[in-house]
Amino acid sequence: MQRNQCLIFVEESREALSEAGARLFERRAVEAVENSGAFFVALSGGTTPRAMHKRLAFRPSVPWHGVHVFWGDERCVPADDPSSNYGAARVDFLDKVPLPAGHIHPMPAHVDPKQGALLYARELRQVFKLKQAQAPVFDLVFLGLGKDGHTASLFPGHKALEDHERPVVAVKGGDPDLYRLTLTFGVINNAGEVVFLVSGKDKAETLRAVIEAQEPRLPASRVRPSSGRLTWLLDRGAASLLTEKIRTSRESGLSK
Ligand code: 6PG
């Protein structure tokens, strides 16, 4: 995979965007499992990825035996709470695919948030077999984009944005305003590929500010994989304010 690349794909509709995301997940999983025997992916939370997750439930060509599922962020609520990213993913596909026991790594949302961050950092060290200061290298990290430019649970102006020591931190904020756990930029930017999945006209202005102006006050602008690829999977609504050059030069259909 070519490194340090930024790709923008604009799909016709939210459905096509979800299909493109599921296709990308499938392709990267096949590549990773063929190359190394395992595929380490961090899922995004929120509502946008759910249609994609639902499609993953019906993709037998994904080599589930080698897939390890993590999260980029989680709300500190019980798994059966409607706000739980883990709970939603279980309903949408995890309970329907043959993932081996121990391959699903939910963030510990049921303990004190600071303790949860330490526990997840320990789980990352164990699963990725890391030495103390090493950051995990995910094959793929999915991210969403908030209208305020946040991504994962890295919110504008939060001190977590400047935390370059810890792989996982506890924050409070967002909508709903909750305690959350989030990967930090050091992990996100260490991935082989980061994929933003963004849908809807309501995100168009923020997307323009991130992609074209790379506004530093917007946390999503700071997602720049150090050696990996950055991929934007957009629908037409989200891409509607991007300049024609960007929008047409990279239009493609991963969903074909
Ligand atoms: C979360 C997400 C968050 C999300 C954006 C977009 O747990 O809330 O990780 O970063 O991706 O807020 O959310 P929507 O997809 O619901 O617009």
Structure overview:
This protein is an alpha/beta fold. The chain has 8 helices and 9 strands. The chain has helices spanning 14-36, 50-56, 85-92, 113-127, 185-188, 204-211, 236-239, 244-249; strands at residues 6-11, 39-43, 67-71, 73-75, 140-143, 168-173, 178-183, 193-198, 229-235. Strand 6 (168-173) and strand 7 form a beta hairpin. Helix 1 crosses helix 2 (50-56). The mean pLDDT is 94. Bound molecules: 6-phosphogluconic acid. The site of 6-phosphogluconic acid (6PG) has 15 residues, from loops.
Comma- or semicolon-separated keywords:
three-stranded antiparallel β-sheet; six-stranded parallel β-sheet; 29% helix; 256 residues; alpha/beta
Oligomerization: single chain
Sheet with most strands: strand arrangement: 1-9-8-5-2-3
Task: Profile the largest sheet.
Answer: 6 strands, parallel
The secondary structure category is alpha/beta
β-sheet strand percentage:
15-25%
What coarse outline follows from CA principal-axis ratios? globular
| Small molecules bound | 6-phosphogluconic acid
- N-to-C series of helices and strands: EHEHEEHHEEEHEHEHH
- The helix content, as a percent range, equals 25-40%
Number of helices: 8
Integer-rounded radius of gyration: 17 Å
Query: Low-confidence stretches at least 5 residues in length (pLDDT < 50)?
Result: none
Q: What's the total number of strands? A: 9
End-to-end Cα distance: 20 Å
Mean pLDDT: 94
